[in-house]
Amino acid sequence: MSRPREPSWHEGHQALRKGRASIPGGIYLLTTTTLQRKPLFSDFPMGCTVARCFDTRLALGENQLLAWVLMSDHVHWLLQLGVGESLHISVGRLKAVSARHFNEVHGRRGALWAAGYHDHALRNEAEVLSTARYIVANPIRAGLVRRVGDYPFWNAKWR
User: Fold this and answer.
1) pLDDT score, position 7
2) What is the value of pTM for the model shown?
3) Beta carbons within 8 Å of 150's beta carbon, 6+ residues apart
């Protein structure tokens, strides 16, 4: 009896995309990690370089970033899709713009972010607010700070 074939890397990412819908105006919790989960952003200047990119028009296109937090090896974004935007293109653009800038500033080449990402569509305003609170409280839960305001790499439109 033969064993089932393991899906390739590409097939696995295709499977992740099944069922993803890009709804203009939809709000999504997005999470991605650094390549090989390297804790690059525990270094303050490296974290600053990437964090500066997130709220730029170049990175966002027609989208709105409602909240975000950059941790040492991953980022959470709360993103509202703009008209004509798709989820995978939007995430790809955020990752590409920040990686390009990071590599230029720090004299690096190659990938900064892992290839995939996790997404969760939010359904109502209460879920949006509780998710935003969850995102910005990440550094507290990780034991890095006692108060959100003491952590340098976050933002929220309700600030």
Assistant:
1) 42
2) 0.86
3) 139
pLDDT, tens digit, 9 for 90 and up, residues 33-68: 999 999 999 999 999 999 999 999 999 999 999 999
Can you give the CATH number for the domain in which 56 is found? Answer: 3.30.70.1290
Assess whether pLDDT exceeds 70 at residue 104. yes
Residue 9 domain flag: no
What is the rounded CA–CA span in Å between residue 40 and residue 81? 28
Gap between the Cα atoms of 22 and 123, Å rounded: 14
Number of domains in the chain: 1
Polymer length of the chain: 159
**CB contact at 8 A, 91 and 30:** yes
- Cβ pair 154, 141 in contact under 8 A: no
> HSE (CB half, 13 Å, CA atoms) of 29?
15
Mean pLDDT of 16-31: 80
Question: How far, in Å, CA of 132 to CA of 130, rounded?
Answer: 5
Residue at 36 is within a domain = yes
Domain with 34, as residue range(s), is: 26-156
Distance (Å, whole) CA 86 – CA 79 = 11
Instruction: Count CB-CB contacts under 10 A for residue 77.
Output: 24
